[in-house]
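Researcher: Going back to the complex we discussed earlier. I've cleaned up the inputs and rechecked each line, so this should be the final set. Can you rerun the prediction on the complete assembly and write out the structure?
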Amino acid sequence: MTSIGFIGLGTMGLPMALNLCKAGYTLTVFARDFARAEPLIRAGAHAAMSPGGVAEVADIIFINVSDDAALEAVLFGSGGAAEGLGQDAIVVDMGTTSPATTRDYSVRLARQGAVLVDAPVSGGEAGAKAGTLSIMAGGPEPAFRRVLPLFQCMGQNIVHVGETGAGQVAKACNQIAVSATLLGVAEALDFAARQGVDAGKVRQALLGGSAYSRILEFHGQRMLDRNFVPGFKARLHQKDLGIVLGEAYRLGIALPGAALAAQLMNALVGIGDGDKDSSALIEVLERFNGMDQ
Amino acid sequence: MTSIGFIGLGTMGLPMALNLCKAGYTLTVFARDFARAEPLIRAGAHAAMSPGGVAEVADIIFINVSDDAALEAVLFGSGGAAEGLGQDAIVVDMGTTSPATTRDYSVRLARQGAVLVDAPVSGGEAGAKAGTLSIMAGGPEPAFRRVLPLFQCMGQNIVHVGETGAGQVAKACNQIAVSATLLGVAEALDFAARQGVDAGKVRQALLGGSAYSRILEFHGQRMLDRNFVPGFKARLHQKDLGIVLGEAYRLGIALPGAALAAQLMNALVGIGDGDKDSSALIEVLERFNGMDQ
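Model: Rerun complete. Updated structure for the full complex:
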């Protein structure tokens, strides 16, 4: 049976790894904070002392760490996964990483005979726990096919978007669309309030027509309720938009909507709200429109 | 039985009036272009020679004209509806009008004992024909109750948002949310194409997650298919965003996302595409990102 590794047991990684355990797979896991592995060990997983220790015993190694720097460290740092990778191993990066970095790491891993599959997700902590994540995958078809049954333990809407990096491109597209929609919903609800109109009724009216979005339904309600418990933290949204704008710079293209959303997300983190849900973006609008006073 | 008038038989007004006829109501109608009334007359409607002629015989007068200037002319111009309005008449403006103009006209009509209900719609020509429009209504509760059975012949999601003007505020909010979402979807699909990734697969991956919107589903597909047959014309979207930004100016608030979308919509109309569906906004992005060459 395929031996599975899992590196990075944060808000997303831990419930995703638990869903693999529940499906009957035996995992070898690593987390910087060893205590994070405890629920998995109770569920039958083994612990390794380093990412390299995971790679030595696993054919398929999932990685779910917070940013490009952390990914580089667990892959290519001292004791990193690259030190232990076997021939034909598949490394699956489920975090949000830049497409350029993904393609670079893919080339470096290929020199060792290993394949990198990029498979970032959408759906947040709730989706990770429920096993209902959207998974956007990039990589060679045979590797995708080998990992698919494992993806199916963690997610529901699983799309093989294209070659290596295509999953991260799709995730960047997701964040472009989500951030613009979030801004539009925040402006609409702020505008309604400034007109003295019940923003809750406006949301209700808009849900039935062409303005319908999941963001309007769920994040619009959060804005009305002032419920900014994450969800998806503003500082992670800011980080993802940093990736988007880095790629726009590299490609020489303009993404004015994403750039505007990124500026406002910077301001949201700047006022100390980086750990709130990113729907708190409406607070930035309210600040410069004078509604916070 | 309540006598019903209908003024303005354009792309939206004609099918909406026909749905009232089909429900068994006898209408008195007026259109600048008399020939537009022909299908209604065949369905049993009477024609009047002026908006004032409609108002003389109708208790409830629907108006569906293209902008504030046309609304002022049919209401207060020579031969306008205001000349013929009876006591307790209800004027229902189903076009998209600025909230400030709506409140002004409401006061002017009240001097004659008439009530203005603002009831702009979302759903486009397809929704008007199918009787599935979203209707966002503002006005006093008793007037709304009197008009509701007629709204139910034209639409499905009917929300009484608040007092006079609140329907137009909701419509403005709708256009704020829709235009930002449209920009986000256009940027996402353009970004995917510039990365060499299949934009159709990206759309598919995004539909299953938090980026889902009706705009992504329907307008995203239009963008992929280069199908810009309206739908909702860019020049009307531009006009509606003009109302939004006029209100933002009047209120002294900043709507940076709506302002950006409005600028790009200006450019879309400027390149001669005002009669295309507003999802053609992606063409503006492609122009400055060099994909049109």
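Model: Worth noting: The radius of gyration of chain A is 20 Å.
Researcher: Good, that matches what I expected from the previous run.
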